[in-house]
Amino acid sequence: MFYMDGKLQYPVRVEKPNPIFARALQQAIGGVEGEIRVCLQYMFQAWGCRGPAKYRDMLLNTGTEEIGHIEMLATAVALNLEKAPLSLQEDAAANPIAGAVLNGMNLRHILSSGLAATAEDANGVPFNASHVYASGNIAADMLANATAESSGRALAVRLQGMTDDPGMKDMLGFLVARDTMHQQQWLAVVEELGGHQAQLPIPNSHPDSAEHARFSYAFFGHDVSGMVPSGRWTEGASLDGKGT
Amino acid sequence: MFYMDGKLQYPVRVEKPNPIFARALQQAIGGVEGEIRVCLQYMFQAWGCRGPAKYRDMLLNTGTEEIGHIEMLATAVALNLEKAPLSLQEDAAANPIAGAVLNGMNLRHILSSGLAATAEDANGVPFNASHVYASGNIAADMLANATAESSGRALAVRLQGMTDDPGMKDMLGFLVARDTMHQQQWLAVVEELGGHQAQLPIPNSHPDSAEHARFSYAFFGHDVSGMVPSGRWTEGASLDGKGT
Amino acid sequence: MFYMDGKLQYPVRVEKPNPIFARALQQAIGGVEGEIRVCLQYMFQAWGCRGPAKYRDMLLNTGTEEIGHIEMLATAVALNLEKAPLSLQEDAAANPIAGAVLNGMNLRHILSSGLAATAEDANGVPFNASHVYASGNIAADMLANATAESSGRALAVRLQGMTDDPGMKDMLGFLVARDTMHQQQWLAVVEELGGHQAQLPIPNSHPDSAEHARFSYAFFGHDVSGMVPSGRWTEGASLDGKGT
Amino acid sequence: MFYMDGKLQYPVRVEKPNPIFARALQQAIGGVEGEIRVCLQYMFQAWGCRGPAKYRDMLLNTGTEEIGHIEMLATAVALNLEKAPLSLQEDAAANPIAGAVLNGMNLRHILSSGLAATAEDANGVPFNASHVYASGNIAADMLANATAESSGRALAVRLQGMTDDPGMKDMLGFLVARDTMHQQQWLAVVEELGGHQAQLPIPNSHPDSAEHARFSYAFFGHDVSGMVPSGRWTEGASLDGKGT
Amino acid sequence: MFYMDGKLQYPVRVEKPNPIFARALQQAIGGVEGEIRVCLQYMFQAWGCRGPAKYRDMLLNTGTEEIGHIEMLATAVALNLEKAPLSLQEDAAANPIAGAVLNGMNLRHILSSGLAATAEDANGVPFNASHVYASGNIAADMLANATAESSGRALAVRLQGMTDDPGMKDMLGFLVARDTMHQQQWLAVVEELGGHQAQLPIPNSHPDSAEHARFSYAFFGHDVSGMVPSGRWTEGASLDGKGT
Amino acid sequence: MFYMDGKLQYPVRVEKPNPIFARALQQAIGGVEGEIRVCLQYMFQAWGCRGPAKYRDMLLNTGTEEIGHIEMLATAVALNLEKAPLSLQEDAAANPIAGAVLNGMNLRHILSSGLAATAEDANGVPFNASHVYASGNIAADMLANATAESSGRALAVRLQGMTDDPGMKDMLGFLVARDTMHQQQWLAVVEELGGHQAQLPIPNSHPDSAEHARFSYAFFGHDVSGMVPSGRWTEGASLDGKGT
Ligand SMILES: [Ca+2]
Ligand SMILES: [Ca+2]
Ligand SMILES: [Ca+2]
Ligand SMILES: [Ca+2]
Ligand SMILES: [Ca+2]
Ligand SMILES: [Ca+2]
Questions:
Q1: In chain F, which end has fewer C-beta atoms inside a 10 angstrom radius, N or C?
Q2: Which ligand has the nearest atom to the CA of F220?
C-alpha cells in the first residue's frame, strides 16, 4: 500500500516559463527513458519477485521514489506552460518569436490538458507500457534497470544543457544525481550476486548440454571482405570465465 | 513525494491457481478499464490542478490508493500462475485439459515475465497512456473519472462472476466496493459545484456569443425514413436549464 | 446501412489558410477527444445494444451525425493547407515567418497526404481504436459519451480561441453547439433511467452480497499526515441513497 | 453529411453461435485487412481529393457502403457470442470443450464489451489509423485500395473456410462478392487514366531530370553468389514503356 | 544469412545541414511509406513464400537492397543534424531563426539519439510493424508492394522538392529511381502470372459457388439522391473478364 | 550495403509441427526480447556511431547476423504451421484436442499470413520500433544491448523448455549460444573502455558541478516504517570509485 505527503521531493522553480522546454521535459515523463517507465518497471519487478526479500524491498523503495520524480517533472511542465501563447498571431510579422514558440509547442498542452503535463514523450507519443521490463530473472532485470538509468541520465544531462533557467538547472541537477545513484544501485546487485563471473551468461541456470557451446564464445564476421573488427570481444578469456 | 509500507491494502488469496484467470485479471491491471489507468489519471489531474486545493488533495489521495490496487492485482496474477504448465504436452491426447490451459494462456506470462503480471491487458496489449485523461477542466475530469470507475466496476463484477475461487471472489468484492465509492466520489464533486444546472455545458465558461445556440438543444435525426427516436432528449427542459 | 448526400452538414470556410491551425484541427479529427472516436463509439454501442430499441436508434442517429463532423473538419484541414510552404527556405533569414510555419507543420501534411487531413491527432499520432468505449452497460456508456463530449467541447472551445479566422470561428461555433446538445442527450438517458439514485453504483445489477459494502461508502486517506480533504464525498448521504 | 436506415445491407444469421469464430471475425472489423480501415481510407481519400469530382463521388459512395459492412460484421460477432461461457469451469475435466472455448476467446468480449464486437483485430489489438492511406495521388491511392480489397477478400475467403455455419457462409459470400467488385473498381480507375503506360512511375508528374534514370530500370542482385533471379522484371520492355 | 560491406549503396552528401530536413527524412525511414517497412515486408514475404523459388529469390534480393536504403537515409539524417542547436536561446529576439529551427526539430534527435536517426516517422511516431503486409497470396502481395513503392516514391519526390541541398537532391534522385524500378518489378510479376484477366479476383482460387456472384460486378450507389458516378467501373467488361 | 546467400545460418527442422509453438516462437521474432529489435538496434547504433570505427564495424557485423536469426525463426514458424487446422470443428466433441489447438492459435497465422510468420509477438501485438535504443552514448548502448541479449536468452531458454521437438531444441540451442556470446561481447566493450570505474556514471562526461553530488551516492528509503533494505548498495565504496 502507498502513501503521499503532498510535497515535492526536491524544489521545482521556473524563472522564465518556456513552452518549448515544457515539450522537451515531456521526454523525461513519458519517454522510453522517462520516469513513468522506471516507476512501473521497478514496481512490476518487485511485485513479481520470487527471490530474497531484500531485493523486492529495494525495488519497492526505489519504485516509490520514482513516482515523486514524475510529480516533480509534471510540476515543471505546468510551470513552463504559464503564460504560453494560446492563439495564433493574426499579424505574425509583428511577433515572429511568439509565433515560432506556438508553432513549436506540443499543441495538446493547449488543446487537451489545459497547460499541464501529459503522459507522453517530447513528440506527443503516449507512453507505451511494453517498455516495462520485468523478466523474472534478477540479473537480467538489474541490467535492464541500469540501462534505463543510463539513458535516463543522458536525457537529464541533455535537458540540463538545453536550458539556462536556474530553477530548471537546479531541479535537473538533483534528478541527474539520483540517476547516478540508481545506476550503481542496480549494478551493485550484480556484484553482490558474484558479478559477471557468476551471473553470465544470463540466465545462469541453463543446463550446458542444451546449449551448443561451440558457438557461445565466437565472434561471427558478416563482412563480405572477411575483415573482422578486433577488440576485447575477440581477445582474452570470456567474461564468464568459461570460454576463450 | 510518496511512501509505501510493503503490505497489501486487502488480503489476496488464491486457493486454486488458474492461469486463464491470470490472463483475465490482466484486464484490470493494464486494460483501459484498469488500475494503471485510473492511478495515472488521478495523479496527472492532481499535478495539473489549478483549482481549489481540496480537489487536488482528494485526487492525490485516491490516485495513491490506486497504486495499491495494481499491487493487489499483480499479486493475484502471480498467485494464479503458480504451477502453470510450462511445456507443450508431447502426448496431448493424454491430457487435453492441461493442453487447453496452456493454449489459452498469455504466453508472455511464461516467456517474458517468468510467471508474473505484465503491464498489459487480457489480450497482451500493453497499456497505452493516451487513456490518461486530464483536461484541465474539473467537471470534464470528474465525468471521465466516473466513467473509468463505471467500466472498472463492470469489469470487476464480470471477473468475480468468472471465478469460483473463494480468495479471488473475496478480493474482487473489495475492489468492487472501492469502485462503488469512487464513482460517487467524483460525481459528488459535480454536485458540490452546482450539478448539471451549473456545470453544463462543459466547459461552462464559454461566452454564449461564440456558440450557435440554435443548434445547442436540438436532436438531429439522420434516419432516411425521417423517424426520430423520442425520449428525455427530445422532451422537457434541457439539463442545463437554458434550452428546451 | 448508410447513405450520404455529398454536402457538408454546416458550411466550412477559411479566409486565411493557416497550416499550423490545420495541425491543431487534427486533434478534433483523430485525437482522443475527436470525432472519429465518438463516431465509432456511438456506432459500436448501437451495434452491441441489447436494450430498448430507442437507445439503439438514438445512438445510430448521432453516430451517423458524427461522420459528418469528421467530414467538416477534414475539409477545414485541407482548406487551411492551401498555399502551405512546400520547401525549406534557402535563405531563411529573408523570411523567418514562412520558415517558422514550415517548421511547425505536421510534415506528413506535405509528405504523406498531399495537403489533406490525416486520421491522426495534433502531434501526428494515429487514432487508436482502444478509445472506442462500448461496455454493454447503458449507464456506463452514457457517462463515457458525456465524457467524450465534454472533452470534445473543451477542445472545440480552445480551437475557437486559437484562431481569428471568421470562417473557422463560425464552423467551430456550430460544432461547439452540437457538443452542448450531445452532452445533455447522453445525461438525459441517465435521468430517464432514474438518475443517480437508480443507476448508481454502475452496473446496478450486482448482488449486494458479492460486494464488501463496508468499503463502499468510505473515503480512504493516503496522506502520511493523516489529513483527509473534506467535501461532499465525506459528507451527506451517498448519491445512490444507500450509504452515508 | 450521412444518413442511415437502421437495416443491414445483407441478412446476418448465425445458427450455431461460436465465440471462437466471433474472435476470428474481429479481424474483418478491426484488422489491417478489415472494414474500418477501408471505410476510413475511402472517406479520407474523398475528403482530400482535388481531382475530378467523379472520383471523389465514387470514393464517397463506396466508403459509405463500407460502414454497412462494419455493421454487418459487428452484428455477426454479437450473434456468435450469444450463450458464450462466462465462467471458468470449476470441474474442467467434466467439460473440456467448454473450457477450451473459454480459453480461446477474446476475453474482452466477456470483460469489456458485454458480448459485443470491439474495434480490434482477431488478437484483440485495437485498430490503428496509421493504416488509413490517402496520399493525394490518385494512382497511388487506387493501388492502395486494390491492395486493401485483395487482402480483405483473402481474409473473407479464409473466414468462410473456417466456419460451417450456413448463415455465416452466406454472409461471407456476400462480402467476398463486394470485395471482388471493389478490387476491379479501383483498378478500373487506373485503366481509365491510361493504365500502367500512362501512370507509371507513380507519381507520374516528376521531372525526369530529377531522377537518376540509369537506375530506374535495372534489377539489382544482392546475392553474394552473383545469381540473379530472372523473370518479366529482367526481360522485355518496362511497364511504363520508357525503360528496357 | 546476410552480409554487408560497410559501404553506402550510393553516396550521401549534405552541404548545408538542416535539422528540419532531418526530421522530414525520418518519414522515409520509419514512416508507413518508408524503408523499414518495405525491407521487412519483402523479407517476410520471402520467408513465408511457398510458391516458385524465383519469386522468393527476387523478394530476398530486393529486401536486402532496402536495408541499404535505411542505411543511406540514417546517414543523411545524422549529417543533417551536424551543428544543430542544442540549447534554447536565452535571447530569442536576437536569433529568431535558430529559435525557430530548434522549435521545429524532433527533440528526440537531441534528447534521445544524440544527433542520429531514430526508427520513427517525421512526427516522431515509432515504426509499427503491423504495416508489414505478407498475406501468403502472391498477387495480393505484389499489389501491396507496388502500393508501398508508389507512396514511397511520392514521398521521395516530395522530399526532393523540399530541399535545395545538392547532396540531398542527388541522393533522393537515386532513391526515386529505385522506386521507379521496384514499382514495375512487382507489377511485372502480376503480368507474368497472366495479368488482371488471370489473377482477378484476388485470391483467384476461390470456388465460384461460395461467392454470391450477382453482387460481384455491380457498383452500389449510396447517395440519397440516387445519383451514381459513372466511369470505367460502371461501363465495359469487368477487368477479370467474367462480369459485365 | 547488404548481401545474402539464401541459406540459413543454422539448420531449422521441425519433426512434429505445432501451431501453438509457432505462436510462442513469434515472441522471439517480434517481441521486445526478439530478433527484429536487436537487429534494428545494432544497425541504428552503428549508423549513428561517431566514435572509433571498430565499434561501428562490430555493431554492423552483429546487426547483420541478427537478420539471419529472424530468418531462422520465421522459417521455424512456417514449419510449425504445416498441417495446422484451418476450420472450426463441426463436432468438437469428437476432437477436443484439435479444437483446443485452433482455439489457442494466433488466428492471424490462418487469416492474415497464410500459415507464415508475422512481425509480431506471441500475443499478436505488432513490433513497435520504440524499442530500438540508440542513445549516441556507447556505454549506455552497450548496457542496452547486454540487456536485450539477457532477456533474449531467457526467452530462448524458456522456448527450449516448452518444446520436445528435437529440431526445435537443436535450433534453439544455437540461438541460446549466440546470445551467450553477444551478452559478453557488449560487456567486453565496457571493460575495454575502463569498466565501471571509468564509465560510471553514464554518461561520464558531465561536469560534476552540474550535479548535486550530495544525492549521488545515497539510497533513499520510502518505507513509512523507516526500514531500509541493506546490501551492496548501502555498503562499501561506490562502483565508480567516487562515492561511499
Ligand atoms: Ca528517476
Ligand atoms: Ca481501483
Ligand atoms: Ca461531434
Ligand atoms: Ca468491404
Ligand atoms: Ca527503397
Ligand atoms: Ca539473436
A1: C
A2: 1
* B83 interface with C at CB cutoff 8 Å: no
Q: Which grid cell is E73?
A: 537515409
pLDDT band for A209, please (50, 70, 90 cuts).
Answer: confident
pLDDT under 70: residue ranges of chain F = 89-99, 208
Picking from F38, F241, F145, F229, the residue whose alpha carbon sits closest to that of residue A143 is F145
Which residues on D lie below 8 Å from F81 (Cβ)? Answer: none
Nearest CA in chain F to E108: F135
Query: Do A41 and A144 form a contact (C-beta atoms < 8 A)?
Result: yes
What is the number of the ligand closest to the CA of E177?
Answer: 5
Sign of the Cα torsion F37, E32, D153, D77 reads positive
Q: E15-74: per-residue pLDDT in tens?
A: 999 999 999 999 999 999 999 999 999 999 999 999 899 999 999 999 999 999 999 999
Instruction: Sort out which chain F residues have CB atoms less than 8 A from E36's CB and list them.
Output: 40, 129
Q: What is the pLDDT of residue D86?
A: 83
F16 at interface of D, judged by CB pairs closer than 8 A: no
Phi first, then psi: what are they for B70, rounded to 5°?
-60, -45
Q: Is the CA virtual torsion A140, A144, A150, A151 positive or negative? A: positive
Residues of C in contact with E21 (CB under 8 A): 88
Q: Which of B176-190, C105-119, E58-72, F194-208 has the lowest mean pLDDT?
A: F194-208
> From the CA of E152, how far away is ligand 1's center (Å)?
40
H or E element that contains D3: strand D2-4
E30 reaches F (C-beta below 8 A): yes
Question: CB distance from E134 to chain D under 8 Å?
Answer: no
ipTM attached to this prediction: 0.96
Check C90 against E164: CB less than 8 A apart.
yes
Answer yes or no: do C123 and A125 touch at CB < 8 A: yes
pLDDT band at B95 (very low <50, low <70, confident <90, very high): low
pLDDT band at B214 (very low <50, low <70, confident <90, very high): very high
Task: Band the pLDDT of D205: cuts 50, 70, 90.
Answer: confident
CA dist F244 and F241 (Å) reads 8
Cβ contacts of F104 on chain B, cutoff 8 Å: 100, 102-104
Yes or no: domain B19-196 corresponds to CATH 3.40.50.740: no
CATH classification of C19-198, choosing from 1.10.10.10, 1.20.1260.10, 2.170.270.10, 1.10.3470.10?
1.20.1260.10
Say if F126 is an interface residue toward chain B (CB within 8 Å): no
Q: Assess B91–F contact: CB distance below 8 Å, yes or no.
A: no
Residues of E in contact with D5 (CB under 8 A): none
Bridge partners of E128? Answer: F128
Which one of the ligands is nearest to E39 CA? 5
Query: What CATH superfamily classification does F19-197 receive?
Result: Ferritin, core subunit, four-helix bundle (1.20.1260.10)
Answer for the pair E230, E221: CB distance below 8 angstroms, yes or no: no
Domain spanning D19-126+135-196: CATH 1.20.1260.10? yes
For A77-193, strand residue ranges (E) read none
CB pairs under 8 A between D and F: 88
Pairwise CB contact (< 8 Å): F184 & A218: no
Tell whether D220 is within 8 A of chain B (Cβ): no
Superfamily of domain A19-127+135-198: Ferritin, core subunit, four-helix bundle (1.20.1260.10)
Compare all CA atoms of chain D with the CA of B159 and give the residue at the minimum distance. Answer: D111
**C54-79 mean pLDDT:** 98
Name A181's Cβ contacts closer than 8 Å, sequence gap at least 6.
Answer: F215, F216, F217, F218, F219
Question: Minimum mean pLDDT among A146-155, B184-193, D87-96: which range?
Answer: D87-96
- F187 vs A contacts (CB less than 8 Å): 196, 200, 239
Q: How confident is the model at residue E243 (pLDDT cuts 50, 70, 90)?
A: confident
Q: What average pLDDT does chain D have?
A: 93
- Delimit the domains of chain C by residue range: 19-198
C-alpha cell at A70: 514524475
